[in-house]
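Appendix B, Record 12. Input sequence as logged:
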Amino acid sequence: MQLGILGLQKVGKTTLFNTLTASREATGKFLASDATHLGIAKVPDPRLATPRDLFNPKKYTP
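Logged structural output:
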């Protein structure tokens, strides 16, 4: 899944991005950038436990 965060300047988009992805992109009072920030966030899915328990795979990667 890909997600984009859109909004006006100085409203906290990078701060929200840092919170969701646990990254440390620079933020500041006079920082303005057109750079694209990429990050990965873990989203657990409890539904994966059911097929794992039924089929007992050798490897399980949630």
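The chain is about 25% helix and 0% strand.
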